[in-house]
Amino acid sequence: MGKRLKIASWNINSVRARMALVERLIVEQQPDILCLQETKVLDDIFPA
Q1: Nearest to 28 by CA among 2, 13, 11, 6
Q2: Residue 2 lies in a domain
Q3: How far apart are CA 17 and CA 21, in angstroms?
Q4: Cα–Cα dist 10/22, whole Å
Q5: Which domain holds residue 16?
Q6: What CA–CA distance (Å, rounded) separates 4 from 25?
Q7: Please, are residues 10 and 25 in contact by the beta-carbon 8 Å criterion?
């Protein structure tokens, strides 16, 4: 059987207010792709 692709999707409603939770999700769930909706942040200040 081939490798599985893990995709996480989250309607986050302000990424900057929940950055610690995003980091925790990445560490604990280890998604291959993370989709965030309603980040409510301008591109030039999006956390990278």
Answers
A1: 6
A2: no
A3: 9
A4: 9
A5: 7-45
A6: 18
A7: yes
Residues 32 and 4: their CA atoms lie apart, in Å, by 9
Give 24's Cβ-side CA count (13 Å radius): 5
Report the length, in residues, of the chain: 48
Which pLDDT belongs to residue 43? 83
Q: What is the pTM of this model?
A: 0.80
1: in domain: no
pLDDT tens-place string over residues 1-48: 789 999 999 999 999 899 999 999 999 999 999 999 999 988 888 777
- Tell me whether residue 39 is in a domain: yes
Q: Which two tokens stand for residue 1?
A: 């059987």
